[in-house]
Design a protein that fits this description.
Number of strands: 5
Distance between the termini: 42 Å
Helix content: 40-55%
Radius of gyration: 17 Å
Length: about 170
């Protein structure tokens, strides 16, 4: 979602976090589109061909794209929940994100990914560096992420939670 406000601010923060890593070996695939794409492309222009903008992709293609990645990084400014973070973890990716109540409900810091203070580009850079340098750690976080999503965020788990809430609510009447 390349739109004004918090999403644009997140992209700009991501560009700032990647700037100190210019000498490292990495690439970024940005999936999505929107009205501020041109502004986002300008923010990432200094990185040249390290950045690829996939635009809008068929939802069925997203798991394959995520499966080909090593990690997902999203500053998550103002993020209430973050479906992309959940999808990434379901694909076995560790997540690096900005800390917020909504993100903390999805990403277990140190278990399924790494969280940074909100709006802190330096902290994001540090966490990206840590996982770039630790392939085993990435795999461990990714495995835990996939397992946690399956245990807590898949359809049967959601149905069971909803059933419990509805039963409790019906008992109150």
């Amino acid at each position: 979602m390349m739109r004004p406000g918090a999403k644009l601010a997140s992209y700009r923060l991501l560009a700032a976090a990647l700037a100190p890593l210019a000498g490292r070996d990495w690439q970024l695939l940005a999936i999505g589109d929107g009205p501020v794409r041109a502004e986002i492309e300008i923010a990432f222009a200094p990185f040249g061909d390290r950045i690829r903008f996939a635009g809008t992709v068929d939802p069925d293609a997203v798991p394959g794209l995520l499966g080909a990645a090593d990690l997902l990084v999203w500053p998550a400014i103002g993020e209430a929940f973050g479906m992309a973070l959940l999808e990434a973890q379901a694909a076995g990716l560790p997540v690096i994100a900005g800390r917020s109540a909504g993100v903390e409900s999805i990403v277990a810091d140190g278990l399924t990914g790494l969280l940074a203070p909100p709006g802190d580009a330096t902290a994001l850079t540090e966490r990206i560096t840590a996982l770039l340098d630790d392939p085993l750690g990435r795999r461990q976080l990714g495995t835990a992420a996939r397992q946690r999503v399956a245990a807590h965020h898949d359809l049967p788990s959601a149905a069971a939670r909803l059933d419990a809430i509805l039963r409790e609510a019906s008992c109150a009447y």
